[in-house]
Amino acid sequence: MDGLADLSLISGPLPWIVTAVGVVGGLWLLSSRRRWFAHRAVPLCTTFAVLATAVLYVVVEKWWRPFPDAIAMPIYVWIGIAICGVALVIPRMIAAGGWPGRILSVVAVVALALAAGAQINLEFAEFPTIRSALGLPEKGRTSFSELATHVSKTVSGIPLDTEWHPAADMPTEGKIATVPIPGERSGFDARDAEIYAPPAYFSDPRPLLPVLVLLAGQPGAPEDWLRGGRLVETMNRFADAHAGLAPLVVVADGTGSELANPLCTDSPLGNVATYLAVDVPAWIKAHLQIDPQPRAWAVGGLSYGGTCALQLATNNPDIYPTFLDFSGQEEPTLGDRQRTVAAGFGGDEAAFIKVNPMDLMRTKKYPTSAGAFVVGSDDKDYRPGQMKVAQAARDAGMDVTYLELPGGHSWSVWSAALEKQMDWLARRLGLIG
Question: Which among 106, 271, 294, 340 is least surrounded, fewest beta carbons within 10 Å?
Answer without folding.
Answer: 106
